[in-house]
Amino acid sequence: MTVITFGTFDILHYGHIRILKRAREMGDRLVVGVSSDTLNERKKGRKPVYSQEERLAILTAIRYVDEVFVEESLELKRDYILQHKADKLVMGNDWAGKFDEFNDVCEVIYLERTPSISTTSIIEVVKGIPENL
Ligand code: CTP
C-alpha cells in the first residue's frame, strides 16, 4: 500500500514529522512530493529558506519517508499520483476538501494539522516579528 503526500516542508518542524509519521502508518511506503522553489514562490509568495535540493535531502533522511520527488506544478498532481501508483493521498486538514477530485484514482485522507506550529510562524519568530500584531 503506497501513500503519497505533498508539501514544501521548509524549516522542518514537529508538525511535519507528525504528518509524515501518520501518513507512513497508513500504508507501507511513503512518497513525498516536495514543492519546487518556483512553485513555492508562486504558491506562497516567498522563496523557501532551504532550497529544493536541501529540502529533498532533509526529507530523504527521515525514517518515515521512502521516496521523494520534486513537485513542479500543482496541475500535475493527478499524474504524480498515478506515476507513483499511490493508493492513498494524505494531506493536513488545512487542505480539507481541496483534493477530493482525486478520489477516483486513490483514497483521499485529511489528517488533523498539529496546532501552534508552522514554517511561517518560525520565520516570524526568527525575524523577531511579534506573531499577534
Ligand atoms: N502540517 C501539519 N501541521 C502543521 C504544519 C503543517 O500537519 N502544524 C502539514 C500540512 O498540512 C501539509 C504538510 O504538513 O500537509 C506540509 O505543509 P507545509 O505547507 O510545508 O508546512 P507549513 O508549516 O504549514 O508551512 P507554511 O507556514 O509555509 O504554510
Describe this entry's structure for a reader.
Helices cover 34% and strands 21% of the residues. It is an alpha/beta fold and 133 residues long. It has one domain (2-127): HUPs (Rossmann fold). A five-stranded parallel β-sheet has the order 3-2-1-4-5, sandwiched between helices. Helix 1 (14-25) links the parallel strand 1 and strand 2 (29-35). The longest helix has 12 residues, at 14-25. It is globular. It starts with a strand and ends in a 6-residue tail after the last helix. Cytidine-5'-triphosphate (CTP) binds next to helix 1, strand 4 and helix 5.
Topology at a glance:
Blueprint: E1 2-7, H1 14-25, E2 29-35, H2 37-44, H3 52-60, E3 67-71, H4 77-83, E4 88-92, E5 107-111, H5 119-127
Parallel strand pairs: 1-2, 1-4, 2-3, 4-5
What are the main properties of this structure?
133 residues, alpha/beta, Rossmann fold, five-stranded parallel beta sheet, 5 helices, 21% strand, binds cytidine-5'-triphosphate
What is the number of helices?
5
Order of helices and strands: EHEHHEHEEH
Radius of gyration, in angstroms, nearest whole number: 15 Å
Structure summary, number of beta strands: 5
Class inferred from helices and paired strands = alpha/beta
Bound molecules: cytidine-5'-triphosphate
Helix content class: 25-40%
Poorly predicted spans: none
Task: Indicate the CATH class.
Answer: Alpha Beta
For the largest beta sheet, what order do the strands appear in spatially? 3-2-1-4-5
Major sheet, described briefly? 5 strands, parallel
How far the N terminus sits from the C terminus, by CA atoms, comes to: 45 Å
At CATH level 3, the topology is: Rossmann fold
Mean pLDDT value: 95
How many structural units, i.e. domains?
1
Could you state the CATH homologous superfamily? HUPs
| CATH architecture field | 3-Layer(aba) Sandwich
